[in-house]
Amino acid sequence: KAGVTQTPRYLIKTRGQQVTLSCSPISGHRSVSWYQQTPGQGLQFLFEYFSETQRNKGNFPGRFSGRQFSNSRSEMNVSTLELGDSALYLCASSPGQVNSANEKLFFGSGTQLSVL
Amino acid sequence: GENVEQHPSTLSVQEGDSAVIKCTYSDSASNYFPWYKQELGKRPQLIIDIRSNVGEKKDQRIAVTLNKTAKHFSLHITETQPEDSAVYFCALSWTGLTGGGNKLTFGTGTQLKVEL
Predict the structure, then answer these.
(1) CA-nearest residue of chain A to B92?
(2) How confident is the model over A84-103, as pLDDT tens digits?
(3) How far apart are CA A16 and CA B59, in angstroms?
């Protein structure tokens, strides 16, 4: 099985712009989670999508949003970029069952976003 | 919400020695404790996990122990090898999430260096 695929691998944007990142989960996986990784803050949970619905949300401002499509692929969007949004954005997929929890997460390689 | 502290932030050991990384948490409702390994420039990968109904789990040279009373869990690596050099993250979650799901809170990471 192919692993979790994230595109693009690298992105450079300027302040005020918006960006969309894409994540294709492992085939058959229905849950997709997004994490922000920075040297100072480590990995922080953004949100999780399951069956095209946001199932859990972290403590990020509304500029961070996401969605999931019927084929379980997910996108996250960051609007009005700030310098502090520079980070590695990781997505992770898991099999996903209704009311399941604490499944093993399979991470993608991430999208490295630089905001200038 | 959940909070987890991880120590040490860096750890240097000689090849063949043991390495121990400890994490402490505050929320007694936490009941799932995975450990992830992230090699330089690569994606985080789950190496072992433990649930709150178990006190210890072993997988070859890796073991995790959990002390629910004291609210800490530890990763033990025996007979360390150069390929064990990486950043190790502890994480935790709990199954009280409405509708289930996966929402991990990560520690800040431990840079392990195994020297020849």
Answers:
(1) A102
(2) 999 999 999 998 876 667 78
(3) 48
